[in-house]
Amino acid sequence: MSVGVSHATRLVLPGPQHLEAYRAALAGGWCANNLAGPDGAAKELAQLDADPAAFLALCDDPQARGGPVTLPDGSQVARIPSRRWWMWASDSDHAADAFAGSIGLRWAADLGPLPPHVLGHIGYSVVTWHRQRGHATRALGLLLPHARALGLREVELTTDTDNSSSQRVITANGGVLVGPFDKGAAYGNKPGLRFRVTL
Fold first, then answer.
1. Are the CB atoms for 159 and 166 separated by under 8 Å?
2. Which end of the chain has the least Cβ crowding within 10 Å, N or C?
3. Which residues pair with 177 in a beta bridge?
């Protein structure tokens, strides 16, 4: 972060007025889905361009009305309730607000434990050109009250074992390390770390 530069982060529910900035991020190779692989941005861009209204509907799907979700191994599972916010950033380096990333909340319909294939209640991704400015930390802090308002008493977040940046984001927001875990066959049985934030 540049010395003397003030950064601010706010969350917006995705709407038509935000699509141009989101599309530009996808065209730049960024993808909100950290597990989507190298072609994730192109796939999401194709979905957005094919039906912008349907794309936005999936961003705000608290009734889980969208179709099944495809996991990294190609298997499909039922969608669970979810809502996504986009991070909007402003700082003294830019005259206007800019798209900075995405953060999403998922939960079981009965507010109970998540299905085994769901790697945490919350996932986030900051665009490459806005990283190291604290946006993920602030976005997570802004999101936690929404999780509490749903009735969740705690949320789980997971990271790769070597993702120290994400681990710092979580612990800065009160996350406590639960321990290592196996992500399961759908994710190649890769190891991960599980954190919990009490609400």
1. yes
2. N
3. 195
> Cα(124)–Cα(169) distance, rounded to whole angstroms?
10
Is the distance from CB of 8 to CB of 91 less than 8 angstroms? yes
Q: Is 170 helix (H, G, I), strand (E, B) or coil?
A: helix
**Mind listing the pLDDT tens digit for each residue in 31-80?**
998 877 778 899 999 999 999 999 999 999 999 999 899 898 999 999 99
- Please enumerate in sequence order all residues whose Cβ is within 8 A of that of 8, keeping only pairs 6 or more positions apart, or say none: 89, 90, 91, 138
Place 23 in a pLDDT band, splitting at 50, 70 and 90.
very high
Q: What is the pLDDT of residues 135-153, one digit of tens each?
A: 999 999 999 999 999 999 9
What's the distance, Cα to Cα, between the start and end of the chain in Å?
29
Describe the chain by its helix, strand, coil percentages, rounded to 5. 30, 30, 40
* Spatial separation of the C-alpha atoms in residues 90 and 9, rounded to whole Å: 7
- Residues contacting residue 18 through CB under 8 Å, at least 6 positions apart: 12, 86, 99
User: Is 198 exposed, middle or buried (CB count within 10 Å of its CB: 0-12, 13-18, 19+)?
Assistant: exposed
CB 34, CB 53: distance < 8 Å: no
